[in-house]
Design a protein that fits this description.
By secondary structure, the protein is mainly α. The protein has four helices and no strands. Keywords: Membrane, Transmembrane, Transmembrane helix.
Length: about 150
């Protein structure tokens, strides 16, 4: 089961890296992209990513419940899941309200498309923490599966 949990964690990690650190920043560099289009794409992509992350976190929790690992992977998984919960329940709603306001024209970023809200920086910082925790969890689970 440790190998299964590790595989799910590495899948989760890959999705976060691909979307948050590759797709999200690059979409605004595409020719002809507008703020409205970029925000719309971002909202769809991150809503889908969030749903998949919740599913993967659930699978990992099931796998570790069936075959509990040691304290290192459990702690790293706990951090990953806690970060996901904070992002989902607290930060994404703030970002959604901000993008609603920008799309409605009631808030205009002073620096154009590249200006970010404070919630965006919080989300990005949490993504870095989540990536580190997922990497630690995946490695610890994989090492544990070789040891067991």
């Amino acid at each position: 089961m440790g190998a299964t949990a590790a595989a799910v964690v590495f899948c989760w990690l890959g999705m976060v890296l691909a979307i948050s650190f590759i797709e999200a920043p690059l979409k605004f560099q595409a020719p002809g992209i507008t703020l409205q289009l970029g925000l719309g794409i971002g909202r769809l992509v991150f809503r889908a990513l969030n749903a998949v992350e919740i599913a993967l976190a659930s699978l990992v929790m099931l796998a570790v419940a069936l075959d509990p690992p040691g304290p290192v992977p459990l702690t790293a998984l706990g951090v990953s899941i806690a970060v996901l919960a904070v992002q989902s329940l607290l930060v994404r709603p703030l970002l959604r309200r901000r993008s609603d306001a920008v799309l409605a024209g009631t808030v205009e970023p002073a620096g154009g498309m590249r200006e970010r809200s404070h919630a965006h920086y919080v989300y990005a910082g949490l993504e870095v923490v989540k990536v580190a925790a997922l990497l630690a969890a995946g490695i610890a689970l994989q090492v544990g599966s070789f040891a067991g």
